[in-house]
Structures
1.
Amino acid sequence: MSTRKSNNALLTYAEAAAFVAKRAQRLARSKPAAERVTLASAAGRVLAESLRADTDQPPFARSTRDGFACRAAEASAHRPLAIAGSTRAGDPPSGPLPRGAVWEIMTGAPVPRGADAVIMLEHVEFAHIESAGAASAPTIRLSPPRIIKPGENIVLRGAQAHKGAALLPAGTLIGAAQIALAASCGCTDLAVYAKPRVAILSTGDEIVPIAAKPKPGQIRNSSAAMLAAMVSAAGGQPWILPIARDTDKSLDTALARASAADLLLITGGVSAGKFDLVEPALARQGARFHFTGVRIQPGKPLVFAELPCTTGPNQNQNGTKCWCFGLPGNPVSSAVTFQLFAAPILAALAGRRDFGPRFAFARLAADVKAKPGLTRFLPAACTFSGPVPKVKLVAWQGSGDLAAMALANCYLVVPDDSDSLHAGTTVNILLL
Ligand code: AMP
Ligand code: MG
């Protein structure tokens, strides 16, 4: 069944990407099971219920500066104002602020009742009012010609969120900022979606485990370790299976086991060679093929299919089918096709609201020659230090070049109708 796939029979990159995006959107409608994890272990997980504010945020009108709480109209008249009191962060709300006075206040402290603005410490002049027989009382005034408006340097109670308001929807990827927000709401743990189980099946008679010393003609299984890292980063639970041989029997046994996963990534065996036996093996398992090639380089022989689910105790969380990608065996091809097509499906299976590869603009540092017909994703190094990202290709020896891939931090996208890209032009990069 492994037939050479002519370009015309294959989907364009845009067609394949749109197809996968549509599937991912549909998949995202059914939500995975939820479980609770501590806040400390929630990074990288996906929120399974909306996070709600347990109080008004902020819970009191808060000063954002060290300075003096005042009535803006009084302060803007530049008359000396007596210091009526002092509140530091952690003190209970105080006041009322008497007329013609200010109240010393620290960043994060509650603004006293009656005040409507906070003058920054750096914006006041200090003076003393002499009162007969008594020690002079300290006063301040707003340094002319500055004026201050009501609301300045105060965040009002509930300005960020009111009690009970949804701060984050279910499906949000949890990172440091989301953890901080959850902590501010008093959440010591969070409901997150169970991670989809992602089987990784490497195929090839030449592939040996990484701990083995390869004999002549053999190579270590670098792709399984790479894909496991990519799966973890994308929110999946990697499940590395033993390497399958290039025989029908070995593939049949491996696939029967692997289809218990929510998503199956097979590497190798999908090209047009004599021992590329994966497609027929998938067909024997009852696979439904969505596409069997895309006009991209690297990654042209990519297969997207679904397998009927294994029933019984191993049944996957999806319950009906195991989504399956046959990734071309070269590691760069596997990496690119995972990023472009498998990652969006995995994100949807993980319950995420956002999926799809991320692209950005960059300025090309040197000319790039290309052949039209395929959309190319070439390992590239981009510097993000200046105002405009600058990208250049990493020298490589084709899609087996792991060293080149390891030096790249993005892929340069060469559109399928381009025969060259010129230095200085704005180009698209696929972010990792
Ligand atoms: P294939 O797609 O099976 O024709 O493999 C294409 C190339 O990728 C061959 O040179 C394989 O040796 C190599 N390759 C396949 N699987 C892996 C793997 N798991 N790790 C590293 N290289 C691989
Ligand atoms: Mg092979």
2.
Amino acid sequence: MLTKKVEEICNRQIEREGFSSNLYLAMASWAETKGMAGIAAWLYAQSEEERVHMLKFIRYVNERGGSAIVPEFKKPPVKYKGIPELFAEVLKHEKCITASISEVLEAAIAEKDHATANWIQWFVKEQVEEESSVQLILDKIS
Ligand code: FEO
């Protein structure tokens, strides 16, 4: 059974992963309308990954006796300045998500919830990969 604190922070993360999915979807759509099919494809794939992240949290909260909440999401920006700015924004966003995942881990440790502390490690590793792949793209284009 999740403690209230861990349940709440996991629900916060559901919102953040869902927003990430919509943010990358908005970016993908923008890139597609600008004729950048390759970049759009990468962003559409990222959007799908983020949706899977959100689902992982939803399923985990419910599996552990909590109640996952599907929230409303803030509308992501419609327009972007350009490709380097867009990827800089993706990296900045992923760094925020990394910090957010760390807070979930810290809450789990504080609550002595070893199962969640162990489960969240997948996301810790995933964030390393995501930041690194975006950094690689930024290095290539700047
Ligand atoms: Fe699921 Fe890239 O954060």
